[in-house]
Amino acid sequence: MNSHEILRTAIKLLGLVLVIYTVIEGLRYFPMMLDLIENSDGTIKTTSQIAAVAIPITIGLMLWFFPAPVASTIIRDDLEVASKDELLAGIENIGIRLLGMYLLYHGISDLVANYVSYSQALNMFGEQIKFSGKERFTASFIATGVEIFLSLILILGAASISSLLRKIRYAT
Predict the structure, then answer these.
(1) Residues whose CB falls within 8 Å of the CB of residue 101, separated by 6 or more in sequence, listed in order
(2) What does the pLDDT look like over 54-67, one tens digit per residue?
(3) Residue 102, SS3?
(4) How many helices (H) and strands (E) does the chain have?
(5) Which of 14, 86, 99 is closest to 56 using CA atoms?
(6) Are residues 152 and 104 in contact, defined by beta-carbon separation less than 8 angstroms?
(7) What percent of the chain has pLDDT over 70?
(8) Mutual orientation of helices 158-169 and 84-125 as an angle, nearest 10°?
(9) Percentage of residues in the chain with pLDDT exceeding 90?
């Protein structure tokens, strides 16, 4: 199994986990979403609640059905492993990317959860949330943004991070 096949499998699993997590969380919030839809005076609240579930499911299904373009973007060339050092470097490289994909999954799910919590608080408390709870939600969104940014650095810069680790590890 070469690095592209391993990465494609990991991307497919990431998509599957994202869909499953979104369905589970969507079912948990489904009664509240129905209540908001029934009591909603406009379609903006309804579409935002539906989008909070539909967007991660769409991303997860795209990762499940189309992992090859994502894998080709992350790994440009597929070299056969010739030595033990190259094998270990490849495993370390893939491990860094898997860590980045886990953080990306966690960041997307946190983003959806923060958005749903914010929209529910906004619907329950109205204008009061803008004064009393705005800092908490702002901090949550910033932390989630940083988490997604770091995950993209790990995914896209795994080769550079791996070579930097090798330089630090084997420096004399």
Answers:
(1) 10, 11, 14, 151, 155
(2) 888 898 899 889 98
(3) helix
(4) 7, 0
(5) 14
(6) yes
(7) 73
(8) 120
(9) 8
- What is the spatial distance between Cα 168 and Cα 171, in angstroms, rounded to a whole number? 5
Query: What gap in Å lies between CA 137 and CA 135, rounded to an integer?
Result: 6
- Which tens digit of pLDDT belongs to each residue from 30-80? 666 666 655 555 555 667 677 778 888 898 899 889 988 888 877 766 555
Cβ neighbours of residue 91 closer than 8 Å, sequence gap 6 or more = none
Q: How far is residue 92's CA from residue 18's CA, in Å, rounded to a whole number?
A: 24
Strands (E), 25-151: none
Supply the Cα-derived Rg of the chain in whole angstroms.
20
Continuous segment of H or E residues that includes residue 171: none
DSSP state, residue 157: T
- 83 confidence band (pLDDT: 50, 70, 90): low
